[in-house]
Every structure is written in structure tokens, then in C-alpha cells.
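Example for tutorial group B:
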């Protein structure tokens, strides 16, 4: 069984996890903006997310061990992660990819890193670690300012359009909005009022006329869920609460990740199949038959699941070696998500100078945070 032991190896795992975990939300957002129902996308994503855990478990570890208390902690972590990932899928539509990732990541670090620091018997340098947590806390405040300023910019853009133009999206035929919308078919320029209406016409989750408070509430709920999955996984791998019988070995990280992903998969299937027939946020009703026949973007959804699965696995491998508090540096994933948001989706194009100042400040704070958290990495005996 391969085990990451060196601090350098742990940091390498964290950096690769940072890229993977920052990229998969962009892929999911791309599909929603092309009109694919999020229930369909998440079901596809869940399949390959579990597949990644199976590959990791059979490649690097083993599966059969007699330590069910630890397995239950791992599965509890999978449950809260599944709830968090499912929630962010709807939050992205309301408040954008960048702001959603910033807020959820910052809440995760402020709560989850603190819990992991004490669970890991303080192996991370507190004098370095908690200033990094402070950087994340400042980043979430700046993210709220970015969202507020950008929302005001968008409202100003839309005021120049007539009410008929704004309401065209409400009457858009669902079958049309589900079609892929490639670059060559987009007529409006990024950041313009016409682009905002065009986006509303083709996306799966309609946001015009709905309060952004809905999106922020979903985002904060997701952040709370994300803040708990890493401490639960930590307990599963290291048994700090001494739930195992004497002589029973700790659950190895790869086995814990397998059970973690199984519970994540099961809950995702239950909730998303329910949402097919009882959709939320005014989404159209679907069915299992419609899902099976929906191949538009399925490959991208599968790809997103693999990215997330391997990203989570690398995060846990790094955390087991250098401390899960330091591994929370991967929560700086908004650095990557914001890059994709600007490049692929035109977020913040033609925004005000005030928005750009807040955005630059937020990103600089994340750069500082990831550097500080990684510098606090310890070494588990």
C-alpha cells in the first residue's frame, strides 16, 4: 500500500487537488448555462465520482477491515459533502461561480480547519495556521462585496432594456433552452445586457425576478456542510475519539475514502431522483427515462465527477501526511474557479471599477491564505 509520508509529497497532493477541485465546478456550471437540468448532470457526476474512489481504493489501499465505527464517520462525511455539492449546484446560478466558491470555501476553512487543528493534536503551527484562516475570513467578506457590487452593475445594465426584452426568457421553450449553446452561436458580447438576457434564455435555472438572497442562503448552507466533511474524515482515519476496539487498526485513508464516496453517491442518487419528479426552484419536471436519454453534455458531467473524486482523494492523502488543517489550503479553489468563471462565462466583464477592486483584493487574499496554510503543514507520526 502506497502512503504519502513526506511534507513535500503532501504539498504536491494539495496543489494538484487545488486545481482539480477548482475546475470541476466550472464544468458543472457550463452545463447548467447550456440548459442541462442540474438533476441530470449531478446523477452523471455521482457515477464517476464514485468510480474515482473505487480506482483509488483498489490501486493504493485495501477495502476489507473490521472497523465499522470509523466507517460510519467516513460515511457521515460523505453525506454532508453530498449535501454541500448538491446545494452549490443551485447556488452557482444565483450568485455566480466565483462568489459561491469563495463563500463556501471560506466557511469551510474557518470552521473545518479549526476543528481539524484540535483533532490532529495541534501538529500544525498555530502561529502560521490561524493567520491563514483569518485571510479566508477576510476573503468571504470581500466576496460578499464583489457579489453586491456586480449585482448592482447587472441591474444597471438591464435597466436599459425594455420589459419585453427582460421577460423573453420566461417564455422560452424548455426544449430549446436545453440545447447546447456553443461560442459560434452566441451573438451578444460578454458583460452586456443582451448577454445577460441571452444567458437567461438558455440556462436551466431561471434567475430573473428572483431574490439573490435565495442563492446566498443556499451558499451559506453549503458552506456549513463543507466545513464538516473533512473533520468527519479525519475522525474516520485517525480515531481520535477512540471508538475502535483495542487491537483494531485505524481505517486507512483509501478505505475511508471509499466508504466516504459510497455514502455520498447513495444520498446523491436518492435526492436527485426525487428532484426529477419533484423539482425545486421552478425547474421543469423530468423522469428517469428522460435522464437516461439525455446525452447532451453527459461526457462533461462524467469528467466533472472524476475531477472531484480524484481531487478529494488527493486532499485526504495530503491531510493524512501533513495534517488535515493544512490540507484545507485546497479550499483556495476559488482561485481556479474564478479564472474559469472569467475565461468561460464572462463573469465580471464590463463591470464597474469598484467591482474590479473588490475582485482583485479577494483574489490576493486567497493567494496569501493558500501560501500561509501550506506553510503551516506539520508531519503526522
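The residue assignment follows.
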Amino acid at each position: 500500500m502506497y502512503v504519502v509520508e513526506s511534507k513535500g509529497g503532501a504539498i504536491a497532493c494539495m496543489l494538484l487537488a487545488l486545481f482539480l477541485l477548482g475546475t470541476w465546478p466550472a464544468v458543472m456550471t457550463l452545463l447548467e448555462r447550456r440548459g442541462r437540468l442540474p438533476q441530470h448532470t449531478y446523477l452523471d457526476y455521482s457515477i464517476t465520482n464514485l468510480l474515482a474512489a473505487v480506482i483509488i481504493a483498489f490501486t493504493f489501499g485495501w477495502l476489507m477491515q473490521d472497523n465499522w465505527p470509523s466507517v460510519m464517520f467516513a460515511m457521515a462525511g460523505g453525506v454532508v459533502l453530498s449535501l454541500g455539492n448538491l446545494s452549490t449546484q443551485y447556488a452557482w446560478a444565483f450568485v455566480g461561480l466565483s462568489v459561491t466558491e469563495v463563500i463556501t470555501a471560506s466557511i469551510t476553512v474557518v470552521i473545518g480547519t479549526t476543528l481539524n487543528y484540535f483533532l490532529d493534536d495541534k501538529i500544525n503551527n498555530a502561529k502560521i495556521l490561524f493567520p491563514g484562516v483569518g485571510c479566508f475570513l477576510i476573503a468571504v467578506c470581500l466576496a460578499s462585496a464583489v457579489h453586491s457590487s456586480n449585482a448592482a452593475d447587472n441591474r444597471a445594465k438591464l435597466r436599459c432594456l425594455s420589459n419585453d426584452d427582460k421577460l423573453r426568457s420566461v417564455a422560452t421553450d424548455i426544449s430549446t433552452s436545453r440545447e447546447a449553446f456553443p461560442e459560434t452561436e452566441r451573438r451578444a458580447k460578454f458583460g452586456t445586457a443582451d448577454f445577460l438576457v441571452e444567458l437567461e434564455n438558455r440556462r436551466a435555472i431561471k434567475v430573473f425576478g428572483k431574490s439573490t438572497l435565495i442563492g446566498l442562503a443556499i451558499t451559506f448552507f453549503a458552506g456549513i456542510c463543507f466545513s464538516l466533511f473533512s473533520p468527519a474524515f479525519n475522525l474516520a482515519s485517525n480515531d481520535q475519539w477512540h471508538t475502535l476496539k483495542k487491537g483494531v487498526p485505524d481505517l486507512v485513508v483509501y478505505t475511508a475514502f471509499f466508504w466516504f464516496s459510497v455514502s455520498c453517491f447513495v444520498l446523491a442518487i436518492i435526492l436527485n431522483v426525487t428532484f426529477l419528479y419533484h423539482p425545486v426552484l421552478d425547474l421543469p419536471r423530468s423522469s428517469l427515462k428522460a435522464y437516461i436519454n439525455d446525452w447532451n453534455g453527459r461526457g462533461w458531467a462524467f469528467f466533472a465527477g472524476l475531477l472531484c473524486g480524484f481531487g478529494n482523494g488527493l486532499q485526504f492523502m495530503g491531510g493524512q501526511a501533513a495534517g488535515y488543517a493544512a490540507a484545507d489550503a485546497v479550499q483556495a479553489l476559488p482561485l481556479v474557479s474564478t479564472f474559469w468563471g472569467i475565461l468561460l462565462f464572462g463573469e465580471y466583464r464590463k463591470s464597474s471599477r469598484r467591482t474590479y477592486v473588490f475582485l482583485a483584493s479577494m483574489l490576493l487574499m486567497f493567494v496569501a491564505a493558500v501560501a500561509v496554510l501550506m506553510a503551516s503543514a506539520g508531519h503526522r507520526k
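DSSP finds 15 helices and no strands in the chain. Compare this with the pattern of hydrophobic and polar residues in the output above.
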